[in-house]
Amino acid sequence: AKTFRLAVIPGDGIGKEVVREGMRVLEHMAEESEGKFSFESDYFPWGCEYYLENGKMMDEDGLEQIRNHDAIYFGAVGFPGVPDHISLWGLRLAICQGFDQWANIRPVEFLPGVPRRLNHPDVDNLNWVLVRENSEGEYSGIGGRNFAGRGTGNEVAVQSALFTEKGCERIIRFAFDLARTRDRKKVTSVTKSNAQQYGMVLWDEVFARVSKDYPDVETDQRLVDAMAAEFVLHPEELEVVVASNLFADILSDLGSALAGSLGVAASANLNPERRTPSMFESVHGSAPDIAGKGVANPIGTIGSAALMLDHLGLAEEAARLNNAIAETTRQGILTRDLGGTYDTVEVTDAIIQNLAKVKEQAH
Ligand code: NAD
Ligand code: MN
Predict the structure, then answer these.
(1) Which terminal CB of the chain, N or C, has fewer other CB atoms within 10 Å?
(2) How many A from CA of 141 to the centre of ligand 1?
(3) Pocket residue to mutate for ligand 1, from 82, 86, 262, most atoms within 8 A of Cβ
(4) What is the pLDDT of residues 16-65, one digit of tens each?
(5) Is residue 120 domain-resident?
(6) Range of the domain at 164
(7) CATH number for 270
(8) Is 312 inside a domain boundary?
(9) Any ligand 1 atom below 6 A from CB of 286
(10) How far is the CA of 130 from the centre of ligand 1 (A)?
């Protein structure tokens, strides 16, 4: 029997509601594994409420408190009353960058039974994966504001994007390695090297060099604005899409909306060397507009639990959980964001029930 130590950080808003449901699914799966695996979960109350009480999003030694866990299961941060840059940098980015979780994978999956936002002849068979550079780029945190000019109408602010050859190379190699595991082996690189002549041109050069090591993988390149259109017009061209921190973030909201809703998109922030724990979270934020109502779609966060199971070496369980999610949407058990009438708990209950059903089908 293997016991996995989870650091659970529900965070703010609907983060709390969906992580509670994700943990219910994981505990259920552990229980029915009959001793094959179990979870020892530590909960951390970090987030905006913690900030308002303690003046910090997480403890100073927060990273040390979770460094030895096998994985981090994360909800979302952000709530009215705390500036978004404080909540993001104080917790989520502190963990991603502090643990060098430099690869963020964000699958775009078109689940059955979900209303299609995309008019495409092969919409049921579309799926691609975004690989987001997760440690530098536009999220380098380098810049400053001209405080002398503050309030004068002449203030100047600089926000720099940092691209290192090593940072570009590792994420691009990661994308090529991932492409090799898929049926269609193709990587599309996204930049804006017409307008951004330093960092993006370095990225392009690294992409050209690394691609020579993968002659079996088809390559393509797009400017990010054209890629936004491609998501809608020719999504059949997409397989593995690799992009910088900001561009991939924007494209992943577009991808999840096309696939139905922000609420269905899962993600994994990986430290591929496994020197530090990786973090699993939905793509969406804390959704203050629906927080506390019990109507949030839990699928993104439960799908992130499937990515976590896979990362922990439980590939079969991960596949079964994904099948149970797909069976649930196929049955029309959908939250409001997908045009349904079910609530967060009901969708989770159905997923748990369908775990048994897909198990029988597999036998
Ligand atoms: P958001 O993702 O929270 O919400 C955007 C829209 O999608 C809202 O209308 C919301 O109701 C809807 N939505 C999101 N998730 C849903 C779900 N599971 N089920 C149903 N509907 C869902 O983005 P936002 O409104 O731009 O940001 C809100 C807060 O979240 C901000 O403070 C922002 O900084 C933060 N944020 C945090 C993360 C994170 O922690 N990873 C990511 C994005 C935004
Ligand atoms: Mn985002």
Answers:
(1) C
(2) 22
(3) 262
(4) 999 999 999 999 999 999 999 999 999 999 999 999 999 999 999 999 99
(5) no
(6) 128-253
(7) 3.40.718.10
(8) yes
(9) yes
(10) 19
Element holding 158 (H helix, E strand): strand 157-162
Spatial distance between the Cα atoms of 208 and 10, rounded to a whole number of angstroms: 40
Same structural domain, 107 and 148: no
Can you give the three-state secondary structure of 32-48, one letter per residue? HCCCCEEEEEEECCCCH
Q: Measured between alpha carbons, how far is residue 198 from residues 117, 137, 194 in Å? A: 36, 12, 10
Whether 121 is covered by a domain: the verdict is no
* Structure-token pair, residue 271: 């430290």
In the block, which residue shows the tokens 């293997």?
A: 2
Q: Look at residue 27 in the predicted model and tell me its pLDDT.
A: 98
Three-state DSSP class for 22? helix
User: What does pTM read for this prediction?
Assistant: 0.97
> Which of the listed residues 205, 224, 253 is the one where a domain comes to its end?
253
User: Residue ranges of the alpha helices (H) in 270-311?
Assistant: 299-311
Residue nearest to atom 33 of ligand 1 (CA): 78
- The count of structural domains within the chain is 2
Quick: pLDDT tens for 188-208. Answer: 999 999 999 999 999 999 999
Q: How far is the CA of 76 from the centre of ligand 2 (A)?
A: 10
Query: Given the structure tokens 């439980």, which residue do they identify?
Result: 314
Kindly provide the residue ranges of all beta strands, DSSP E only, lying in 174-289, ordered along the sequence: 186-191, 218-223, 240-243, 266-270, 278-282
**Do 18 and 77 sit in the same domain of this protein?**
yes
Q: 287: Cβ below 6 Å to ligand 1?
A: yes
The verdict on the CB of residue 17 being under 6 Å from ligand 1 is: no
Q: Is the CB of 10 under 6 A from ligand 1?
A: no
CA of 363 to the centre of ligand 1 (A): 39
Residue nearest to atom 18 of ligand 1 (CA): 263
**β-strand partners of 218:** 186
